[in-house]
Amino acid sequence: MKYSIVVSLDTDAHQYSRLCELRRVFAQVCNHLAPSVQESRNWNRVTLHHLYYHSLRKRFPGLGSQMVCNAIYAVSKMAKLVYQHPKSPYNVGRRTAGTLPLLHFAEICPVYFDRHTLSIKADELSVFTMDGRIHFQLNLSKSKRAVFEAAKLREIALEERKNRRFELSFHLESDPQAIALPISNLRGTESIIPHYISIEGAE
Description:
2 domains, 4 helices, alpha+beta, single chain, about 35% helix, globular, 4-stranded antiparallel sheet, 3-stranded antiparallel sheet
């Protein structure tokens, strides 16, 4: 069973600016890589890493090595969704020839984190930015903490919601029998093509 736990971040003006800058550069990396995916018709994460990691690190040195890896993951994930999902109108099964449409990531796109760029110690979050880490208090309900302890963490995404507030979404997966507490307050999955992805050159 899949779960999504959402944590709201209480940022001051400076912290908010740092997260916005991280997101802006993250989107730049994604959009720099997307044309190569379009041209090659290859969005395998491992292949993209081998082919483009070093050039991306050189072009965007301030983002850091692991965040570049996370941007590659983001492009691979979205390309797989847009080009392979059976409900996607851009599925390659219906586009066996010709150039694929180009993915474009808006500057409000999520930033993906992992255990190297985000850490949790007791009730504190430590989040990577290009200007050093930011620390936040982590206050979880009993049911959400039970999910954290029993489920396997699959993905962490930072997104901005209303009122200039950032949220971290922790996506986890577990055997249903492993979690006995109620989890009705956990958020579900996203739609097929997210609002921050636009498709250019689609016919």
